[in-house]
Design brief:
The chain is mainly beta. The chain has a single domain, classed as Porin (Beta Barrel), CATH 2.40.160. It contains four helices and 14 strands. A hairpin with a 7-residue loop joins strand 8 and strand 9. This is Membrane protein. One of its GO terms (cellular component) is cell outer membrane. Keywords: Cell outer membrane, Membrane, Signal.
Amino acid sequence: MKKLIAAGFILTAVNVMGATEGNDLEVSVGAGGMSKRSIYKTKDKYEVNPLIPLNVKYGDFYLSLMETEMGYTFYNEDGLRLSLIGKAHLGYDSSDLEREYRAMDDRDMDFHLGLKSVYSHKNYELISFITGDVSGESDGKTAGVQGRAHYQVIQGKLVFSPSIGATYADSGYVDYFYGVKGSEAREGNINNGEEYRGAGSMIYSFNSALTYIYDEFLSFSLLGGANLYDSKVENSPIVDKRYEYFGGGSFSYKFK
């Protein structure tokens, strides 16, 4: 599933680049890897995935593969940027879960449309968003806020970017990604044969990036972060811990 998502985003980017010419097109692409501790009760508690830091910007349109997000910026004045966005949320394959949870169905990705705002002041950004699923998978909705800063450790060469955020996910989102349907519970004797339906939940995120800018084209980044979930997610029978964390690194080359 993750490979299909990556291929879809890359194909979209290629189509954008092939249909446009001129100085408005900005493309950066690279490679890297990330190790992540899964929140689910999986066979392997830690998973290693490749990173493809692909970013495409053409005029007011943008695409970010790592953020699984694309958008159109329709307002950009006085430090405030408003965008219509599309964002994918990845699910899981039931074959990756521990054996006693194999009766679970796969959870495919859902795809949200929504509105995103970014207010920038000096080295700081305040980001907010609201989205809703249009794929028919989760029928869930999310809303959140994030604060991000950029500190010049070495002027023009080394930048430290920490962020902290909070996201509200409604019951549709929580049920789809962390719930257990009655048929799954009965077939696999999960949760004593009883379905698990989570209510709306809060997800807190803590992330950071340390970026070394080699020149105007090439940069290297170290990434790390964690997500903390509230009890509605933690109490799910398929959830191992209320937190997940990750670390990794990548390089990126910008074409001009």
